[in-house]
């Protein structure tokens, strides 16, 4: 995990120090639930007004536990004394493109307000307009197959070209592919992260995070300096679901955080979509389970766009645009090769093939091998029993026990 200042061209929104202090005190008051805070704010006005109320009036409006939480002295935040943390947040918010958003801000994502417990305060970097644009979440496995990465990128590009924001979690695998595909499109992407907004996790996504902060938006409910903790990511998934009108699962194993996102989306009344795959592919099992439970089976971006009510003209324009071919990297297939006679090129081809049949053109784009080298690698794999030729010039990996 690395600390980074992500530049954007948008002017910073610097909150009033006293108002910010009140918001942070209430946001981090132990035992004060977001729903109770919304109730108190609705009754008394802003956070300074809430803090000026008596125990009796607070308890009468919410309950005694909420009153105790409101009137308790502020505690450290992420190990930083409260007053020092306020200074750090003000300094962060003064940097271009950085924003503190609360319930009281018109820039606060309206979609989150339909959640049962939206966070009272958010840290945002980048384009605030994207937080008010209709969004589709695209999530999936961190250990995605080449086909999954390609599908995530292609679907995200199509969604972005059709006017939808693509939300995801900046994780390895499907999330990263979705962000990259959306950045190639016309609308953009929002990364909802499970750390402080001043950190990038995983560190390998340092460059991607810069691109998202410049051309999209990064959103976090966690205090600055919050490191990656396993308990934070289900909470992060809840925000991804809340921000979106629907969630598309591209690849997911049976025990996957993506299934948590799908469940939360369903509980919030959002649509859930899933891409089917090979019955032999472990990363298809989670998607198949969702489809059995009522998720909408998706075969093309148009299936999702029609459910979102996107006009046929917009769908046609999005379908007319093609993503540039990109190399993909995965090693699930080559790890299955026990024959030491298989060469490097053959291993690259088997990695690129994944679980879905592919043509020579697709394999060439994924591996960057020329025609002769690709044909030689495929012949080697066929002779070794790892690949079979299908009708129509396609090739498929052969599952071997």
Could you describe the 3D structure shown?
The two termini are 39 Å apart. Helices cover 43% and strands 13% of the residues. The strands form 3 sheets. It has a 9-stranded mixed sheet with strand order 2-3-8-6-5-4-9-10-11, sandwiched between helices. Strands 12-14-13 form a 3-stranded antiparallel sheet. It has a two-stranded antiparallel ribbon with strand order 1-7. The protein is built from 17 helices and 14 strands. It is an alpha/beta fold. Mean pLDDT is 87; it is low at 2-12 and 322-341. The protein has helices at residues 17-27, 34-44, 47-51, 55-61, 64-71, 82-93, 146-161, 174-184, 206-215, 232-243, 257-267, 282-292, 301-307, 312-320, 344-353, 360-367, 371-383, and strands at 2-3, 98-102, 121-126, 135-139, 165-168, 189-192, 199-200, 217-220, 246-249, 271-274, 296-297, 358-359, 387-390, 394-397. Residues 100-308 form the Smf/DprA SLOG domain. One of its GO terms (biological process) is DNA-mediated transformation. Residues 344-393 form the DprA winged helix domain.
Layout: helices, strands, pairs:
Elements: E1 2-3, H1 17-27, H2 34-44, H3 47-51, H4 55-61, H5 64-71, H6 82-93, E2 98-102, E3 121-126, E4 135-139, H7 146-161, E5 165-168, H8 174-184, E6 189-192, E7 199-200, H9 206-215, E8 217-220, H10 232-243, E9 246-249, H11 257-267, E10 271-274, H12 282-292, E11 296-297, H13 301-307, H14 312-320, H15 344-353, E12 358-359, H16 360-367, H17 371-383, E13 387-390, E14 394-397
Parallel strand pairs: 4-5, 4-9, 5-6, 6-8, 9-10, 10-11
Antiparallel strand pairs: 1-7, 2-3, 3-8, 12-14, 13-14
Helix pairs in contact: 1-6, 4-5, 7-8, 7-13, 7-14, 8-9, 10-11, 15-17
């Amino acid at each position: 995990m690395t600390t980074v200042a992500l530049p954007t061209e948008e002017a910073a929104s610097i909150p009033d120090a006293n108002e910010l202090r009140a918001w942070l005190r209430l946001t981090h008051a132990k035992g004060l639930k977001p729903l109770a805070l919304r109730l108190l704010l609705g009754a008394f006005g802003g956070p300074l007004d809430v803090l000026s109320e008596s125990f009796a009036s607070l308890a009468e409006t919410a309950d005694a536990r909420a009153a105790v939480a409101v009137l308790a002295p502020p505690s450290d935040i992420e190990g930083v004394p409260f007053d020092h943390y306020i200074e750090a947040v003000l300094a962060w918010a003064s940097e271009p493109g950085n924003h503190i958003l609360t319930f009281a801000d018109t820039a606060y994502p309206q979609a989150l307000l339909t959640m049962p417990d939206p966070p009272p305060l958010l840290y945002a970097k980048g384009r605030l307009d994207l937080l008010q644009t209709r969004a589709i979440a695209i999530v999936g496995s961190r250990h995605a197959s080449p086909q999954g990465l390609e599908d995530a990128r292609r679907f995200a590009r199509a969604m972005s070209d059709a006017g939808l924001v693509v939300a995801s979690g900046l994780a390895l695998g499907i999330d990263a592919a979705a962000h990259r595909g959306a950045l190639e499109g016309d609308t953009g992407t929002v990364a909802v992260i499970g750390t402080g907004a001043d950190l990038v996790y995983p560190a390998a996504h340092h460059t991607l995070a810069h691109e998202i902060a410049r051309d999209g938006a990064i959103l976090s409910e966690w205090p600055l300096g919050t490191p990656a903790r396993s308990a934070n990511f289900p909470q992060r998934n809840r925000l991804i679901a809340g921000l979106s009108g629907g969630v598309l699962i591209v690849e997911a194993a049976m025990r996957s955080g993506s299934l948590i996102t799908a469940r939360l989306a369903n509980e919030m009344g959002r649509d859930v979509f899933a891409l089917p795959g090979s019955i032999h592919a472990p990363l298809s099992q989670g998607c198949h389970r969702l489809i059995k439970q009522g998720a909408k089976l998706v075969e093309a971006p148009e299936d999702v766009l029609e459910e979102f009510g996107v006009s046929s003209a917009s769908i046609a324009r999005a379908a007319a645009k093609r993503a540039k071919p990109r190399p993909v990297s995965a090693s699930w297939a080559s790890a299955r090769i026990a024959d030491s006679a298989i060469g490097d090129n053959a291993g690259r081809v088997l990695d690129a093939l994944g679980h879905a049949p592919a043509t020579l053109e697709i394999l060439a784009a994924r591996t960057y091998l020329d025609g002769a080298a690709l044909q030689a690698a495929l012949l080697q794999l066929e002779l070794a029993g790892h690949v079979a030729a299908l009708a129509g010039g396609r090739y498929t990996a052969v599952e071997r026990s």
